């Protein structure tokens, strides 16, 4: 999948906490930093995310989009 966004951070999922309709996901970036994202639980389930997965984090000013590296 090609996308136009250029602000990408390769990351590995460390932990997922489901909280009602949302999933809180702690990430370890491959650069020296750590971020936490909040996405809908449905999105997390559809992407079959689990701790240890490698993902790309795509940052936009109004939202954050993630893309599973292994499809």
Short summary of the structure?
The chain is mainly β.
List the helices and strands and how they pair.
Elements: E1 8-19, E2 22-29, E3 34-40, H1 41-46, E4 54-59, E5 64-68
Antiparallel strand pairs: 1-2, 1-4, 2-3, 4-5
Protein architecture, described:
The chain has one domain (8-68): Beta Barrel (OB fold (Dihydrolipoamide Acetyltransferase, E2P)). The longest helix has 6 residues, at 41-46. The protein starts with 7 loop residues before the first strand and ends with a strand. It is mostly beta strands. The radius of gyration is 11 Å and the shape is globular. The protein is built from one helix and five strands. β1 (8-19) and β2 form a beta hairpin.
Task: List the defining traits of the structure above.
1 helix; five-stranded antiparallel sheet; mainly beta; 71 residues; OB fold (Dihydrolipoamide Acetyltransferase, E2P)
Estimated radius of gyration = 11 Å
> Helical residue percent?
under 10%
Reported for the largest beta sheet, the result is: 5 strands, antiparallel
Flag low-confidence runs. none
**Number of domain modules:** 1
DSSP, total strands: 5
